[in-house]
Amino acid sequence: MIRLIVIDLDGTLLDNGKKISGENEDAIRLALDMGVAVSISTGRSYVSGHQYVEQLGIDVPVSYQNGALVTFGHGDEIEIISKSLLEASRARLIYTRARDKSLNILVFYDFFRLPDISTVGPSDSPYREYYRHNKYRMIFEDDPLARISDEGIPEIALEGKESLIKELLFESNSHLDNVTVVKNDSVEEHAFYEFFGPGVGKENGLEHILDHLNLDWSSVAYIGDNFNDLEILKKAELPVVMANGPDEVKRHAALVTTRDNNNGGVSEAINSILKIRGEE
């Protein structure tokens, strides 16, 4: 029986204006009232995602940055359930090789404080909206490499031509042990890839949540929309993909919503999940 609904943020729970609709919030309240726990699993960092968790009053652990950080609680009462850092030597190697290929590089150097991203400047790529939405988090500077501390960092992200990113991955393969690579998104020939420390992935972040709640995958319904949701969709008992998701992701869904993230798709998904749960 489904006892936990886990929801992605961008492209799923959030509309394109980065808001949670009243309809989606009401559906989450309904699930909670029926005794079903609700959590969030997002590629967003804590500093850009925790306000939504607080808005919903979620009282179970939450997974941030594709599972690199799992926390429980709010405000000054935050407990770190798990945390993974990208080793400094690996981060510096990725940075220098990406710079040599003229890829756009974002260095995420802090889990909890703003600003938390260093980059040379805003991009004119298909991901320009990402820079606009996250400008408040960014420092534009000539040498983001200097932000990579010896103890490691949460993440490096690369965006640009996917062929160049794949070339970098091939050339650096022998140096990428203890590095988790996540393809976040692609637009035509461009792509957005993220590089994390060992053991990172939305599915691993959810493992920590399940351990904390003493649940297993047979209890999980997951609602997502994109490539970084694939592994978790493959393991969830009831995988749901949004109407706006790519066809490659939809192939891994038991349910695909008829409504997208701008039109209450999560509300539709939750109501379907609760109906299936009631029939079990």
Automatic annotation (TrEMBL):
**GO molecular function list:** magnesium ion binding; phosphatase activity
Q: Which SUPFAM superfamilies match?
A: HAD-like
Q: List the GO cellular component terms.
A: cytosol
Matches recorded under Gene3D superfamilies: 3.30.1240.10, HAD superfamily/HAD-like
Tell me the domain of life. Bacteria
Swiss-Prot/TrEMBL keywords: Hydrolase
Listed Pfam families: Hydrolase_3
Q: Which residues form a coiled coil?
A: none
* Cited NCBIfam families: Cof-subfamily
Q: Which PANTHER family match?
A: HAD SUPERFAMILY HYDROLASE-LIKE, TYPE 3, PHOSPHOSERINE PHOSPHATASE
Q: What's this protein's name? A: Cof-type HAD-IIB family hydrolase
Tell me which species this is from.
Mesotoga infera
